[in-house]
Design goal:
Helix content is 68%, strand content 8%. With 159 residues, it is mainly alpha-helical. It has a two-stranded antiparallel sheet. A hairpin with a 5-residue loop joins strand 1 and strand 2. The two termini are 27 Å apart.
Length: 159
Amino acid sequence: MRTLLLGYGLTAAFVVLSGAVLPERVASHFDAGGAANGYLPRSMYLLTMLVVCALPVLACLAAAASLRNPRARINLPHRAVWLAPDRREETVRRIRRGMGQFSACLLVFLWYVQWLVVRANRHSPAHLPTAWMLGGLVVFVVVTVVWLRGFLGQFRKVP
């Protein structure tokens, strides 16, 4: 969890520092062709990005807190085996670690999005390269699928 909080701190610093070069009126929404079609004042854009970047961390903290409850409803393959009293602590540790990994991947994707928005706003008119956004999204989806297979796969085998 400390690593995830550090990751958020670094992300917040990146958003604020990279946001310093943004214009007062930030192109913050783009159509399918990459043309800007929505704008925010820089301060509102930065606040929005800081909140959006905090969401994976907050979700991870909330889930970790709920996992402390011995009556927490956890849906896993072979649930009875993995949540047996002698394995529950290790299972919860694995779930927390997996949530932290996914949250970290999401933070990296949000760094990438911030970089693209800063880059897009350097042009006049602002333009987001669609291929770069789609490429980043595809990489994020592939990483998510690979992560999900590995995460759930560790619970498919009965010890």
